[in-house]
UniProtKB/TrEMBL annotation:
Keyword Transport: no
Domain Plastocyanin-like: 16-130, 142-284, 365-505
Organism the protein comes from: Gossypium gossypioides (Mexican cotton)
Keywords: Glycoprotein
Entry GO MF terms: copper ion binding; oxidoreductase activity
Protein name (record): L-ascorbate oxidase homolog
Length: 535
């Protein structure tokens, strides 16, 4: 439903979250459905729309959904993570109200509670450009969302028990494309249809829980046009590595003989490669898809090199009329450098994942509520980790991690991965410039090789084994923001933290007040609401 009141339009959605049987790999699993759908419905919006989503939790356990990549300017209250929001209790509802302010692009939403994400509750979230803002390519014939992800047939309760007992999840059972896998028996329904001679937009997101995937279209190339809210230089690719939590938009032109073709997804950096396919059907086409699938790339050096080909389109617009490149991030002085090293350790015999020697534990009171109500000291301590990994990074303590960030500081964050597993990180509330990535350990002279001109502004970044990645951003969005591993067993077992950015003036210019109707829990439940910011 759409409503316009003088300002920006408001979109209303009502979501019923239920259990239901799903079988993406042919094995029945207890899944999580939104309005009866797996994956959930596409949330379709336009720049500056106000979005109201009333979520009814009909599960038998708490549930919470986050809007991955939506920046929620001045409004971390709506981010939908456990550091900002109480989960929705069983049988209750909560209404999210947020604006997709000054954003365009391809995003997703998904649950952050327990291991719910493994069995559904996720879907595509798109922010279209306003009609008056030029887009650097012609309107496609259609706009499709392709959600690819790994899948575990054990179900979310069993996966949670495995992690709670301190064990590793192991490898996935397979991968799905929009919740399905083509059987190749000639009876498959197409995922998408194309008309010869026309060009189509595909928004490809990796909604899985731990596996990087390579995506390719049989017989067709992909022109990359947008990545997580930024228009990119329009290079052509035969295949794209899409790491967990990442979204790319590509254009595919139907320029081949009219028949069926496969869209193919394969696991990357796994001992055993798993491949799945879906059907792309040409309208009035004749003939089945060829069983000869395009091969995936080999090794992660290929993937690192592909990352280096991604460039910001400096001359095109994003959500605003001015060109993206008018923001000269490369000339701003760095005021703080934070180096984060991930480790996998056993604590009391159980597997935990840590950053700089601390493994995050979720307090029963959301951090943001504790801070706002003035009881932070009863829930967490600020700056429990140093800005550099400790020299002995094998000792791990369990605690909430909250970094105290100075409003508007320009910060460099380096992710160092000394493990043999690939990492993928996301930062809520922001986009950042992914300026560098290389093998080995980071050192200050590596800054000489940073891309300070046209690095893509995005919200996720991968870190290859025994490698580092560097990002730059201005912490100008007040709130409590989650920096997390998108690899969900790592997230669940402690590989995440929060950045607290407080308005120095306690001003509505910097941050919105606690919304009416917000759920309270933990020690703030029943406490009187603090006085609101007045101006």
């Amino acid at each position: 439903m759409l409503m316009v009141q003088g300002g920006d339009p408001t979109l209303f959605f009502e979501w019923n979250v239920t259990y239901g049987t799903i079988a993406p790999l042919g094995v029945p699993v207890k899944g999580i459905l939104i309005n009866g759908q797996f994956p959930g419905p596409n949330l379709n919006s336009t720049t500056n729309n106000n979005i109201v989503v009333n979520v009814f939790n009909n599960l038998d356990e708490p549930f919470l959904v986050t809007w991955d990549g939506v920046q929620h300017r001045k409004n971390s209250w709506q981010d939908g993570v456990l550091g900002t929001n109480c989960p929705i209790p069983p049988g209750k509802n909560y209404t999210y109200k947020f604006q997709v302010k000054d954003q365009i692009g391809s995003y997703m939403y998904y649950p952050v509670t327990a291991m719910h994400k493994a069995v559904g509750g996720f879907g595509g979230l798109r922010v279209n450009s306003r009609l008056l803002i030029p887009v650097p390519y012609a309107d496609p014939a259609d706009d499709y969302t392709l959600l690819v992800g790994d899948f575990f047939n054990k179900g979310h309760t069993s996966l949670k028990k495995i992690l709670d007992s301190g064990r590793n999840l192991g490898r996935c059972d397979g991968i799905h494309l929009n919740g399905k896998v083509a059987k190749g028996d000639g009876k498959d329904e197409p995922l998408f249809t194309m008309e010869a001679g026309k060009t189509y937009k595909y928004r490809i997101c990796n909604t899985g829980i731990k596996t990087s995937l390579n995506v390719r279209f049989q017989g067709h190339t992909m022109k990359l046009v947008e990545m997580e809210g930024s228009h990119t230089m329009q290079n052509d690719y035969d295949s794209l590595d899409v790491h967990v939590g990442q979204c790319f938009s590509v254009l595919v032109t139907a320029n081949q003989e009219p028949r069926d073709y496969y869209v193919v997804a394969s696991t990357r950096f796994t001992r055993r490669e798993v491949t799945a396919t879906g059907i792309i059907r040409y309208k009035n086409g004749k003939g089945a898809a060829s069983s000869e699938l395009p091969p995936p790339p080999v090794g992660w050096a290929w993937s690192l090199n592909q990352f280096r080909t991604f460039r910001w389109n400096l001359t095109s617009n994003a959500a605003r009329p001015n060109p993206q490149g008018s923001y000269k991030y490369g000339s701003i002085n760095i005021t703080r450098t934070i180096k984060l090293a991930n480790t996998a350790q056993r604590v009391d015999g159980k597997l935990r994942y840590a950053l700089n020697g601390v493994s995050y534990v979720e307090p029963t009171t959301p951090l943001k509520l504790a801070e706002y109500y003035g009881v932070a000291d009863k829930v967490f301590k600020y700056d429990t980790i140093p800005d550099e990994p400790p020299s002995d990074n094998t000792k791990v303590t369990l605690a909430p991690i909250v970094l105290n960030m100075t409003h508007r500081n320009f910060v460099e964050i380096i992710f160092e991965n000394h493990e043999t597993a690939i990492q993928s990180y996301h930062l809520s509330g922001y986009s950042f410039f992914a300026v560098g990535m290389d093998i080995g350990k980071w050192s200050p002279e590596k800054r000489m090789n940073y891309n300070l001109l046209d690095a893509v502004s995005r919200h996720t970044i991968q870190v290859f084994p025994n490698s580092w990645s560097a990002i730059l951003l201005t912490f100008d969005n007040c709130g409590m923001w989650n920096l997390r591993s998108e690899i969900w067993d790592r997230h669940y077992l402690g590989q995440q933290l929060y950045a607290s950015v407080i308005s120095p003036n306690r001003s509505l210019k910097d941050e919105y007040n606690l919304p009416e109707g917000v759920l309270t829990c933990g020690i703030v439940q029943g406490m009187p609401r603090p006085p609101p910011f007045s101006s």
